[in-house]
């Protein structure tokens, strides 16, 4: 049997020696202690796999020790032992988290069975935990999404949460930068302390220093009382500075000193104050580009940009669009007392194909608008806002043309852009041996099929290199990936 570690708490010297022998015969690495205080010290020094704990001890109750262990080391398996047991005590012990309850006297066989069962349970729990950790997370600290891009974000948050290092979050507007900052705070040891968010773009420039550091009474016109700033409010917790690149250079130098030392001075104040704050910053701009332009201090960049976290735009998150939309539909349907249950297939496809320039924030707005203005069991295609419908490809706009005319028009229109963004390759050489996409005089074909055939042809001509094919087609690689995902949904309907 594989060796396991066990702390045996037994005040009787003779019984302690006997039980130690039993446990050693089962493969246990036994540490014998006689007092409750010694047991707690040993547990804190080196937590064991098993704790065999007598209820009656000279210095404290075994039940009190069990309660403490459940708070500080809940993964330790506890077996309670007593010579004065009753059914009530046994029930209390099991409710408090003990794995089993043994009545003295007991022989080696009884203890061996209990220990083996306890070890099997530990093994099963580890297997389940390992399996659950291997599964994609759909919900995580306020985020919704199971795409690979979001799994990477979740893993990064898990890695940085317990660190004191500064985190810099970047991403387009509406991707959830404040949600990410709160997730870092909640997943870390500061989660019982304040999380203070400050949007540097929404505060007047002449007030932002006071908002961060606070001010004294009479520091400026209107300062009738002393006021704590975000730095003081976030003491012990996390200070989130959103849209940091909007901060003026003069204030950036004061912020740099604060980050380096934890020391600041209120506006109008004459003494320094010190706090313990973890910094998380965010921007929807490229911070290094702002440094190059001279609009953001390079030394402040290196202080804050220790651990970068990049949030992907919604258009690159695949089926996350549907997950988020369904979650929002349930939430808003309940709030507005409507009867929506889900989306029609056509509406789902439309949401998936739309580019979402405003990201999750725009999706929230769209779903709220649909719920408020309509009431039905399903969200239908024509319930989508006009700005979404206008941006979607239409299969009926040229219905008066023949199928061959449509195919020729679309193919020719797209193919004219093929040489436009070649990666340092002569235009004539790009498709020197390429033949035009074949079209025939068949029935009218859905536009997405023509587009699919043209894009796949470009990928084939570029030997599977999607970024190169995207450049030739004058579109972004993410557009190709997004369309390939939407085709998987469209195919079964053909």
UniProtKB/TrEMBL annotation:
<dbReference type="InterPro" id="IPR025944">
    <property type="entry name" value="Sigma_54_int_dom_CS"/>
</dbReference>
<dbReference type="InterPro" id="IPR011006">
    <property type="entry name" value="CheY-like_superfamily"/>
</dbReference>
<feature type="modified residue" description="4-aspartylphosphate">
    <location>
        <position position="54"/>
    </location>
</feature>
<keyword id="KW-0597">Phosphoprotein</keyword>
<dbReference type="InterPro" id="IPR025943">
    <property type="entry name" value="Sigma_54_int_dom_ATP-bd_2"/>
</dbReference>
<keyword id="KW-0238">DNA-binding</keyword>
<dbReference type="Pfam" id="PF02954">
    <property type="entry name" value="HTH_8"/>
</dbReference>
<dbReference type="InterPro" id="IPR058031">
    <property type="entry name" value="AAA_lid_NorR"/>
</dbReference>
<dbReference type="InterPro" id="IPR002197">
    <property type="entry name" value="HTH_Fis"/>
</dbReference>
<keyword id="KW-0067">ATP-binding</keyword>
<keyword id="KW-0805">Transcription regulation</keyword>
<keyword id="KW-0804">Transcription</keyword>
<keyword id="KW-0547">Nucleotide-binding</keyword>
<dbReference type="InterPro" id="IPR027417">
    <property type="entry name" value="P-loop_NTPase"/>
</dbReference>
<dbReference type="Pfam" id="PF00072">
    <property type="entry name" value="Response_reg"/>
</dbReference>
<dbReference type="InterPro" id="IPR009057">
    <property type="entry name" value="Homeodomain-like_sf"/>
</dbReference>
<feature type="domain" description="Response regulatory">
    <location>
        <begin position="5"/>
        <end position="119"/>
    </location>
</feature>
<dbReference type="InterPro" id="IPR003593">
    <property type="entry name" value="AAA+_ATPase"/>
</dbReference>
<feature type="domain" description="Sigma-54 factor interaction">
    <location>
        <begin position="143"/>
        <end position="372"/>
    </location>
</feature>
<dbReference type="InterPro" id="IPR002078">
    <property type="entry name" value="Sigma_54_int"/>
</dbReference>
<dbReference type="Pfam" id="PF00158">
    <property type="entry name" value="Sigma54_activat"/>
</dbReference>
<protein>
    <submittedName>
        <fullName>Sigma-54-dependent Fis family transcriptional regulator</fullName>
    </submittedName>
</protein>
<dbReference type="InterPro" id="IPR001789">
    <property type="entry name" value="Sig_transdc_resp-reg_receiver"/>
</dbReference>
<dbReference type="Pfam" id="PF25601">
    <property type="entry name" value="AAA_lid_14"/>
</dbReference>
